[in-house]
Write a structure and sequence with these properties.
The complex is a heterodimer of chains A (about 450) and B (about 250). Chain A is an alpha+beta fold. Chain A contains 14 helices and 14 strands. The model of chain B has no long low-confidence stretch (mean pLDDT about 90). Chain B has 2 domains: about 150 residues, NADH:ubiquinone oxidoreductase-like, 20kDa subunit (Rossmann fold, 3-Layer(aba) Sandwich); about 80 residues, no CATH class. The chains are: A alpha+beta (about 450), B alpha/beta (about 250).
């Protein structure tokens, strides 16, 4: 192995969202350089938000990402509500939690089946698997369709939701619609979940461990996606409003997405960070699924992110069922007359004071933070968004630095394959991370 | 007969349109049966360079994008702009109305020189486009209908009436007639979305672009009638239609 030269350049990694390259340079057995180049064009979302009135922000912010637009919507709305001191009703928050679960289901199904699984069968995409694994592909399509049905009924569509706005919904789902969705969810739990677990329990994941710092939301009430405090396994628990003291963004030359660093070292966000931190709060069905998949908390193997996503799919289905049952037992009330939701282009808006707010949620790929500063005219003066993938980039590079020397004696094709699988397992969302934010303003 | 070779490409965007294609349910399997997908980076590692139909998503936003889109035009027989970013530059164009040096500095600080970007443009600012599938993101049904018509040598149908036509057909109460009126671009926006936003209780923000021969004067009158200030009008039009008038 010593004395080996290795030069890897993977141009436009496929089956990830956005554009990135992997660069590895080994000279005489010594690792000279490892990097994940991000070449997505800059998008300047923070700048786009400046000058917009606060309720307009949500329909711009959600367009940062086509996969996790519900998470961006939720984070944007929560930042505005935090700034204006609005506390939404139980019903509004419960509906939002169902939507977060549905998006988690859609995104994880897309990644685990369509983007990650082909690697385990040596095929370039899911298309050849349509004939070799038709049942599995149908399961994936069913799960994705379920998520889309839920979002279509509740907020008009999944990608770029329409009726989810500040302090409520412009259109309210009916009890009959919710009952129908509940039926579909139960059917998926009965039919699709066992097929999914059977498929993923048979995949052989690469062996590689590197313990890192795991960051995610924590909440004593539940396994949180929608709300909570932020926990870093190195820096402890802190309030979302304090995130700037804990997370630093840095511009690096090879990436149009800024890298985010924790106070101590690179850190991981996303399904595995959540699984490792909040395992005990997973619903019983999901804990059972983890046992079946032989995924134990904590797992230090980043390739296991895909498995943690599968566990979360089981959790989200059960969580949605429970939330819908609660809603139905209390009855869905039209709260719009008493509390008109603040839609983007309402002709009349309440007066606001100069303020700032932070909204944090767990997007499918991890911690997502929006921060807005609102002026006395209700317009946004400054915005900042911290995106999950930007937080994972430094951690992916740290993984690659540790992994490459361990596998240097293998054929180049295999090394490339393992590196691509590693990057892919983080399910990076590169479009998102190139939203390009303003970093330095003090709240 | 050989199956037509189809490729999907993404430029500056959220990739929500490609994801919409991946979300058409069982019909995705029919689509994969009817065409040969040779390039779909979001979904496949195979990168074929020989294709008949190119679906292009996203805006042109860097000098490199210009070269890449020209290359795609050379290879493809048919180029289809997929979604608002490719069609009318979408929300990307919002930043065109800010000072470019300032926003670059705002984001990258003293490293602003490292990253190249130009004003966001629709793809037909650079190449000839054969067809457009509008909306942000594209509508699943419209995409399927478009592909079916294209593959059967029919002229694909994209409606040329305003959103209001479909909104009326749905029996919605007009956004302007609600107790709390909502300012809506439905009267001047190309229909075909099924008035999806007004039907979900929200405003049409114009993502399908202007309807041919849009009566902007009447729209101007309507907005003024509702006390919409000049600033508010700019911001509303500049959600999606900031570049209107610059297009033929």
């Amino acid at each position: 192995m010593s004395g080996k030269d290795l030069d890897i350049y993977v141009h436009h990694i496929t089956r990830v969202e956005g554009h990135g390259n992997i660069v590895v340079d080994v000279k005489k057995g010594e690792l000279k350089e490892v990097k994940l180049e991000i070449i997505e064009s800059p998008r300047f979302f923070e700048a786009m938000l400046v000058g917009r009135r606060f309720p307009e922000a949500v329909h711009i912010a959600c367009r940062i990402c086509g996969i996790c637009s519900i998470s961006h919507t939720a984070a944007s709305i929560k930042a505005v509500e935090d700034a204006l001191g609005i506390k939404p009703t139980w019903q509004t928050e419960t509906l939002r939690k169902i939507l977060m679960d549905a998006e988690m289901l859609d995104s994880h199904a897309l990644h685990s089946f369509f983007l990650a699984a082909p690697d385990f069968f040596g095929v370039p995409s899911v298309i050849p698997m349509v004939s070799t694994h038709s049942e599995v592909i149908k399961t994936a399509i069913n799960l994705k369709k379920l998520a889309h049905d839920i979002c279509d009924v509740m907020v008009g569509r999944h990608t770029h939701p329409i009726s989810m706005v500040v302090d409520g919904f412009t259109n309210l789902v009916t009890e009959e619609q919710m009952e129908e969705l509940l039926g579909k969810i139960k059917q998926a739990q009965k039919e699709d979940v066992p097929r999914m677990l059977d498929f993923f329990s048979k995949l052989k994941f690469p062996q590689f461990e590197r313990r890192t710092n795991y960051n995610c939301l924590v909440n004593p009430e539940e396994y949180p996606f929608y709300d909570g405090m932020i926990k870093s396994s190195e820096a402890g628990v802190y309030k979302p409003r304090d995130y700037k003291q804990k997370i630093a963004e840095r511009v690096v030359d090879h990436s149009t997405a800024k890298h985010a660093f924790g106070p101590v070292k690179p850190y991981m966000v996303g399904a595995l960070a959540r699984f490792n931190t909040n395992y005990k709060q997973l619903l019983p069905e999901a804990q059972k699924a983890a046992k079946l998949l032989k995924l134990e908390a904590p797992s230090y193997n980043p390739y296991h992110i895909t498995l943690a996503q599968v566990v979360e799919i089981v959790h989200c289905l059960e969580s949605m069922s429970r939330h819908i049952e609660q809603l139905l037992s209390r009855g869905i009330k039209d709260e719009r007359a008493e509390r008109p939701p603040l839609a983007g282009w309402s002709a009349k808006l309440p007066p606001v004071k100069k303020s700032w707010g932070v909204g944090v949620v767990e997007a499918p790929r991890g911690l997502l933070i929006h921060e807005y500063r609102i002026n006395g005219n209700g317009a946004i003066d400054a915005a900042n968004c911290i995106i999950p993938t930007a937080q994972n980039l430094a951690n992916i590079e740290a993984d690659m630095r540790e992994l490459v020397p361990q596998i240097l004696d293998r054929p180049k094709e295999e090394i490339v394959q393992l590196l691509e699988m590693l990057v892919r397992s983080y399910d990076p969302c590169i479009s998102c991370s190139c939203h390009l934010l303003k970093v330095d303003f003090v709240g | 007969m050989a199956k037509p070779k189809v490729a999907f490409f993404d430029f500056t965007c959220c990739e929500g349109c490609q994801l919409t294609v991946l979300s058409i349910g069982e019909k995705l399997l029919d689509l994969f049966g009817a065409v040969e997908v040779v390039n779909f980076r979001e979904a496949s590692s195979y990168k074929g360079q020989d294709y008949d139909i190119a679906f292009v998503e996203g805006s042109i936003a860097t000098p490199k994008d210009i070269e890449r889109i020209k290359e795609i035009r050379k290879r493809a027989k048919v180029v289809v702009a997929l979604g608002a970013c490719a069609h009318i530059a979408g929300v990307n164009a919002i930043r065109n109305f800010h000072n470019q040096q300032e926003i670059k500095k705002m984001v990258y600080g003293d490293k602003a020189w490292v990253f190249d970007s130009i004003l966001a443009q629709p793809i037909d600012a650079v190449i000839k486009v054969d067809y457009y599938i509008p909306e942000c993101p594209i509508d699943k049904e419209e995409f399927l209908r478009f592909v079916t018509q294209l593959l059967n040598n029919m002229k694909p149908f994209i409606p040329d009436y305003p959103v209001c036509v479909e909104c009326k057909m749905k029996g919605n109460v007009c956004n302007y007639h609600k107790p709390n009126p909502i300012i809506c671009l439905g009267p001047v926006t190309r229909g075909g979305c099924g008035a999806i936003c007004p039907s979900a209780g929200n405003a049409c923000e114009g993502c399908r672009g202007l309807v041919p021969d849009a009566n902007l004067e009447a729209m101007e009158w309507l907005l003024s009638e509702y006390g919409v200030s000049a600033e508010d009008k700019f911001r509303l039009y500049r959600m999606y239609n900031g570049l209107m008038g610059m297009k033929k």
